[in-house]
Automatic annotation (TrEMBL):
The lineage of its organism: Bacteria, Bacillati, Actinomycetota, Actinomycetes, Kitasatosporales. CDD domains: ABC_6TM_Rv0194_D1_like. The chain crosses the membrane at residues 36-60, 72-92, 146-170, 176-194, 256-283. It is a multi-pass membrane protein. It comes from Streptomyces rubellomurinus (strain ATCC 31215). It is found in: Cell membrane. This is ABC transporter. SMART domains: AAA. The keyword Oxidoreductase does not apply.
Amino acid sequence: MAENRHDDKTAGRGRRSTVRSLLRLWPYARAVRGRLAVSATAATLGMLTTLAVPVVLGRIVDGPVADHDSGALWPLVGLVLALGLIEAGLFYTRRVVLSRPLADLEARMRADLFGKLQRLPVAFHDRWGSGQLLSRAGSDLYVIRLFLAFALVFLVVNSLTFLAGAAVMFSLDWRLALIFLAPAVPLLLITRRFEGRYSDASRRAQDQNGDLATVVEESVLGIRILKAFGRHRSMADRFREQSRELRRTELRKAHLLANLWSVVTGLPELAVCCALAVGSYLVAHDQLSAGDLVTFLSTALALRFPVESLGWLLAYANEASTAADRVFEVLDTPEADDPGTRADLGTEPDGIRLTGVRFRYPDAPEDSPDLLAGVDLHIRSGETMALVGATGSGKTTLTALLPRLYEPTAGTITLDGRDIRELPRQRLRELVAVAFEEPTLFSATVRENVLMGAPDASEAQLRSALATAQAGFVDRLPEGAGTEVGEQGLSLSGGQRQRLALARAVVGDPAFLVLDDPLSALDVHTEALVERALREVLGSTTALVVAHRPSTVLLADRVAVLADGRIEAVGTHQELLRDCPHYRELMSGEAAPVPEGSSAR
Ligand SMILES: Nc1ncnc2c1ncn2[C@@H]1O[C@H](COP(=O)(O)OP(=O)(O)OP(=O)(O)O)[C@@H](O)[C@H]1O
């Protein structure tokens, strides 16, 4: 089940470094480095303005207040007001300068992630729950943007402010400065401990979020089955249990943060109290002026935000580094290699040839035999070969090897003599058209769905493909071939969807056609009509057709029987009925009378 799929990805991760993970964002952040610098400068100037206010206050106490000189007071009050206005302007600049470029950066990362997901092999998608991928493309990228917009800027600015504040304090009185800065050492030790724990909890929460998204997605997609089998309650229980786990992790995060927060706010308060006591003693003994003590304490209070914000800044940094890890786990996954050649089909019309082809799924149990254990099969050029075998024998898997949706673990597959690994993927998929048993339509018009098989096809070719697939129902749709179908459009029946998938496969007049039980959802009458039309298409192409029923088998010139991972027998329908007991068994009960003139007899 998908909810635990993240385990194999998170297992074995060593102690991660927050900084190293965040540095991986640099290639993206580089594009906005100028804006980041402007924002950080505006924030630093804003902080320095804040720190200037205590200095002016000290001057007011030691000057106009001590001298009872109200005339000298007003320029200084005006200065405090001006500093406030400057600070507001700088705050605005900091926000506005980053918001649009960071939204662009998030969009760019999302586009890269989406592009990568499209390029990754099917085997990758088999292993990852869709919710895990959704949460990476959604909330993780959002967390990264927030980090770059606020936390990164403030980590820099607060450090600078702290250094500037400390310099002001040392210039006033080194003893008071040391008292105020003493808690820095325990604070550093405590935050290091916090970082490790919080980072683990944060990763767990983000993974659990992804698992939860998978459950929601599966429940929505499978709502009919859940309702029909009365399983919506058990699904709701599963959802509740997983959200409880997520809640526990979030509470653990809140608990860790609360602990850190109490120390981060408590220690500086204690230090300020001590500084106040010692400072008052120094003023009483004329070792410090009252104005300097006011400046010192105001500075210490102004430094409270930079110190206190340490807690949430670290939490943000941690969450962003976890999010970056999760996003780069996908971006770093190796893509299937493309030969980078411009090779095309061989010159001899040799058809499809599989030699010693072996295959096993990566997650198959170790002690299980290979699903395909040395398949040798030759489909002559222009021939239609039916592939039959018991359920689960690997027929669909075998068909998926031709367009390289999966890679054989051994052996070779050639098309007209050319090894498919030498053909650029794009070219291979133009040459080999596929219609799967489970037809998927996208939220687009009928025309767009069918023309995915050949984007440059003409209207006449579209019409001809729809006719071959007996998809006359399209003309009766509200807007004909322009009608939106798929998840966000009109719902079509299983048979209608299957016919559109078939039209998609044949629209480009492919040189090689792979059909996985393409007529399984059709009624007997429509099946006969499609078969008749398909015969014409199959006459001009080399085809492999997975068949469960004699009627589909009869579309083919010859039949191959798949058993125990190998081709057990090849022959015409009649030959196999006569000589192959396994074939007889597979066809038994449904063995149709063989029509005159049909080639697979
Ligand atoms: N993505 C996958 N990951 C792991 N195992 C898989 C995957 N897809 C299929 N299998 C397993 O491989 C075996 C063969 O599946 P396949 O779909 O190729 O059989 P089939 O002959 O087409 O079956 P059917 O006639 O029922 O459609 C089955 O045991 C199945 O559980």
